Structure formats: C-alpha cells, structure tokens
Amino acid sequence: MRIQLASAGLVAAGLTLAIIPLGNTWLFAEICREHGQTDVGLSVIDPVIAKVEGLRAKPGITQWATEYYEQELGYLRKLRARLETERGERKET
To answer: Which parts of the chain register pLDDT below 50?
Structure first.
C-alpha cells in the first residue's frame, strides 16, 4: 500500500514510473566502463538519455519534475562523456 501511495505521489508530481530502470541502467553502464566495455555501456545509456529527454519535454509536467529530469540528464551525459573518452583512449592504444 505504501508503494502505491508513493508512486501515485510521484506521478502526481509529474514523474512517471518509466524512470525506475534509470538507476539500474546507470549502474550497468558504469560497470561496463570500469571493465572496458564502453560500447556496451553506450548502447544502453543512449536510449535512456533519449527517454529522459522525452519525459522532460512532455507538456504539463511540473517544474519539480523538469528539474529532476535535467539533473538526471546531467549525470547521464557525464557518464556518457566518460564512456566516449575511454572508448577513444582504448582505440588509440
């Protein structure tokens, strides 16, 4: 019951349940980076970035939700940049 109430509050605030896999995807991409599997990390993080950008652009979301999505996009884009950098470094060696 508490989970239902909490998720209803998030949806009312403008967030959707589509963000739940976000943390798992971020973690997986970070593990891929740490183990030199940058292409795999990029392949999972790029669709998530596109999804969050789409959620942020939805009409009618609250200011709070917009700020949340922008914060998450910042984290995801930094991780994506690290993956890109390390992929380039591996290709050079």
So the answer is: 1-18
Q: Round to whole Å and give the CA distance between 26 and 41.
A: 9
Contact status, residue 42 vs residue 50, Cβ threshold 8 Å: no
Length of the chain in residues, anyone?
Answer: 93
Q: The pTM is what?
A: 0.71
Rg of the chain in Å (alpha carbons):
15
Give the C-alpha separation, 81 to 70, whole Å.
16
Q: Tokens for 82, please give them.
A: 């690290």
Measured distance CA(89)–CA(91) in Å, rounded? 5
Average pLDDT, the chain: 77
Query: Tokens representing 66?
Result: 């917009």
Tokens linked to 84: 């890109």
Q: What is the Cα–Cα distance from 39 to 31, expressed in whole angstroms?
A: 12
| pLDDT value, residue 22 | 67
